[in-house]
From TrEMBL, chain A:
<feature type="transmembrane region" description="Helical">
    <location>
        <begin position="290"/>
        <end position="310"/>
    </location>
</feature>
<feature type="transmembrane region" description="Helical">
    <location>
        <begin position="90"/>
        <end position="111"/>
    </location>
</feature>
<feature type="transmembrane region" description="Helical">
    <location>
        <begin position="161"/>
        <end position="179"/>
    </location>
</feature>
<feature type="transmembrane region" description="Helical">
    <location>
        <begin position="12"/>
        <end position="30"/>
    </location>
</feature>
<feature type="transmembrane region" description="Helical">
    <location>
        <begin position="118"/>
        <end position="136"/>
    </location>
</feature>
<keyword id="KW-1003">Cell membrane</keyword>
<keyword id="KW-1133">Transmembrane helix</keyword>
<keyword id="KW-0812">Transmembrane</keyword>
<feature type="transmembrane region" description="Helical">
    <location>
        <begin position="210"/>
        <end position="229"/>
    </location>
</feature>
UniProtKB/TrEMBL annotation, chain B:
<feature type="transmembrane region" description="Helical">
    <location>
        <begin position="79"/>
        <end position="98"/>
    </location>
</feature>
<dbReference type="GO" id="GO:0022857">
    <property type="term" value="F:transmembrane transporter activity"/>
</dbReference>
<feature type="transmembrane region" description="Helical">
    <location>
        <begin position="168"/>
        <end position="188"/>
    </location>
</feature>
<keyword id="KW-1133">Transmembrane helix</keyword>
<feature type="transmembrane region" description="Helical">
    <location>
        <begin position="130"/>
        <end position="148"/>
    </location>
</feature>
<feature type="transmembrane region" description="Helical">
    <location>
        <begin position="53"/>
        <end position="72"/>
    </location>
</feature>
<keyword id="KW-0812">Transmembrane</keyword>
<dbReference type="Pfam" id="PF02653">
    <property type="entry name" value="BPD_transp_2"/>
</dbReference>
<feature type="transmembrane region" description="Helical">
    <location>
        <begin position="21"/>
        <end position="41"/>
    </location>
</feature>
């Protein structure tokens, strides 16, 4: 294996390796870390962020960014809780329809007007939060989940893990296949790599971009709905800053913000890494959650610096 | 036939002129229109007290936006400003025992150091601005909370005076913001550094080739942004008479970016509009105040803001 291959391997699977090291260190240092109960709680609490980050991975590989996912997560939760009074189907379909539509609108504006994704989805962040406040009486009304079947989607367990974990795993698999084995996946990489070249090669640039934002909206809405089912209510104050967590997880996972490269495995590893850091800090006990933010920030900085140095080394060889 | 073409051309030229006008003066026109609306239809709008409240509330956003405009001018972005405000709030109460001025200096230096870290990552390591400052957003907010875990009230009369006293009826905070605006305007229009900032944002590789100190200028821009954000944090803390690192400056990066963009500074860099940025901040403040005064709820304010951002960016985007 030469230096270039080593660099690429590190960039793509660095998060996974660090995750492995942290898990080993944590298991040696704390008796209560490597227990099935703790592992399950890390995985469950990571699953909602993972679903959002999967959508974000597609967006970032295509060269874009989606700041609206935090707001869509909350909106999805409120809509699901509201819809649950009409049964399971409405509880699931209502948030998917609305959040998918928001994604579609954002994608259309980005693809057709050439406006920066950062600004369009920033407007989305504000507008969707406004919409969420409007349907929850300015955040005063909390809709409770009355439908048993819908609550079970968030709370039921299979093989010791709750359903959201299985759903997340299934979504990650589907996303991996979509990205690696289909023409759509190739188009996403092509658009993010070099938009003009992709257009010249006949890649449907606009359609690919629009689809990516629709996916991101759908997944954020789904994550919100699952979270509402788990908590039995559509909480209006959650999800603030979630877009930044998702972007951080994707970047830590080795996907480049410049687009054109990256993958789902890295993103899932990135999400788990953030979850494990939080769990380790909980184990120490005396450290507050504020400390977790410091560690996450330092970690993100280290990862991007390492990424940058590795890609420089690759270009030199 | 020739007449037809010239008519079509005239139409195109007229359309371009309209766009150029909107790009240059749209935000002023919007602020004026909103002011006029309020004078006519909002009771007590012209009361001095109301006016002062509006100005004082928008001051931190204006100060942060000035730094953000410089950063965006270099084709960068600074997401860390809200967290820097929180860090400044934490530092100022930690060092208040040594007197208000040393405490303020420590806080502002702290902000400049955070800016230098972000600037070094961007300029010397080559990390993308959005990721470098995202790491700082997360980490620095945590640091501020570790230093000062809960809201702390203080009784230092000098710091309280900084936040609440007035000169000739104008709050000191507002005067400071106005002075900073003039300084930044001067730097952008009249100094070599200002020209270098704009040149780097316009075309980085050309700037490098023509021998501009690109890395040093980039670093300086982020240091200035951190410094201004810290100052905004200190002033906001002085006004609140309490240090609140948990929630001070939350989401202000988004408000500042909005102010800059609504003011017509393109995210693609190469152009900085200082006064329009201040107008952008005033416009968003005035808008939410107007909607609230007319009993429209918060939810509407945010949705209207979203539409205004999109409209402003659409109107001012680069013509292709």
């Amino acid at each position: 294996m030469n230096r270039e291959q080593a660099g690429r391997l590190l960039q793509q699977h660095g998060a996974l390796m660090v995750l492995g090291v942290l898990v080993i260190v944590g298991s040696l240092a704390f008796d209560s870390f490597a227990t099935p109960g703790n592992a399950a709680s890390v995985v469950v609490s990571s699953s909602f962020l993972a679903i959002i980050a999967i959508g974000m991975t597609f967006v970032i590989i295509s060269g874009g960014i989606d700041l609206s996912v935090g707001s869509l997560f909350v909106l999805g939760g409120v809509l699901a809780a509201y819809g649950s009074q009409y049964g399971l189907a409405v509880a699931l379909l209502l948030p998917l329809a609305v959040c998918g539509l928001v994604g579609l609108l954002q994608g259309l504006v980005i693809a057709r007007t050439g406006m920066a994704p950062f600004i369009v989805t920033l407007a989305g962040l504000l507008g969707v939060r406004g919409l969420m406040l409007a349907i929850s009486d300015e955040g005063a009304t909390t809709y409770l989940v009355k439908d048993r079947a819908f609550a079970a989607v968030g709370q039921g367990e299979l093989l010791g893990l709750s359903y959201p974990v299985h759903i997340t795993a299934a979504l990650a698999l589907v996303a991996m296949v979509l990205l690696q084995r289909t023409g759509f996946g190739q188009n996403v990489y092509a658009v993010g790599g070099n938009e003009q070249a992709a257009a010249l090669m006949g890649v449907p640039v606009a359609r690919t971009k629009i689809l990516v934002y629709v996916m991101s909206g759908l997944l954020a809405g789904l994550a919100g709905a699952l979270n509402a089912a788990r908590l039995s209510s559509g909480v209006t104050i959650l999800g603030i800053g979630l877009e930044l967590d998702a972007i951080a997880a994707v970047v830590i996972g080795g996907t480049l913000l410049t687009g054109g490269a990256g993958g789902i495995t890295g993103t899932v590893a990135g999400v788990l890494l953030l979850g494990v850091i939080q769990s380790l800090i909980n184990q120490v006990g005396s450290l507050t959650s504020a400390f977790q933010q410091v560690v996450s920030g330092v970690f993100l900085a280290l990862v991007v610096v390492a990424q940058r140095l590795l890609s420089k080394a690759q270009r030199l060889t | 036939m020739a007449e037809l073409t010239s008519q079509a051309q005239a139409r195109v030229v007229r359309k371009q002129r309209v766009f150029a006008w909107v790009q240059d003066y749209g935000v002023y026109a919007a602020v004026l229109a909103l002011l006029l609306f309020n004078v006519l239809f909002t009771p007590h709008f012209l009361d001095a007290a109301n006016f002062r409240t509006q100005l004082v509330q928008v001051t931190p956003i204006v100060i942060v936006s000035l730094g953000m405009a410089l950063v965006i001018g270099t084709q960068g972005i600074d997401l860390s400003v809200g967290s820097v405000m929180a860090l400044a709030a934490a530092l100022v109460v930690m060092y208040l025992g040594y007197g208000w001025l040393p405490a303020v200096i420590v806080a502002v230096v702290g902000g400049a150091v955070v800016g230098a870290v972000g600037g070094a990552l961007v300029a010397y390591v080559g990390v993308q601005p959005i990721v470098a400052t995202l790491a700082l957003l997360v980490g620095v907010r945590g640091l501020a909370n570790v230093l000062v875990p809960q809201l702390v009230e203080f009784r230092n009369p000098d710091l309280i005076a900084l936040g609440s006293s007035s000169v000739a009826g104008i709050p000191v905070i507002v005067l400071i913001a106005a002075a900073l605006t003039v300084i930044v305007l001067f730097v952008v229009r009249r100094t070599t550094f200002g020209r270098q900032v704009v040149a780097i944002g316009g075309n980085r590789s050309a700037s490098e080739l023509s021998g501009l100190p690109v890395k040093r200028v980039l670093l300086t821009v982020y240091v200035i942004s951190g410094l201004l954000a810290a100052l905004a944090g200190v002033l906001a803390t002085a006004r609140l008479q309490a240090s609140d690192p948990t929630s001070l400056g939350l989401f202000i990066e988004l408000s500042a970016i909005t102010a800059v963009v609504v003011g017509g500074t393109p995210l693609t860099g190469g152009r900085i509009r200082v006064l329009s940025t201040v107008m952008g901040a005033l416009l968003m403040q005035l808008l939410s105040a107007t909607l609230i005064k007319h009993n429209l709820p918060q939810s509407w304010t945010q949705m209207v803001q979203a539409v205004i951002i999109l409209a402003a960016v659409y109107a001012t985007r680069e013509r292709r």
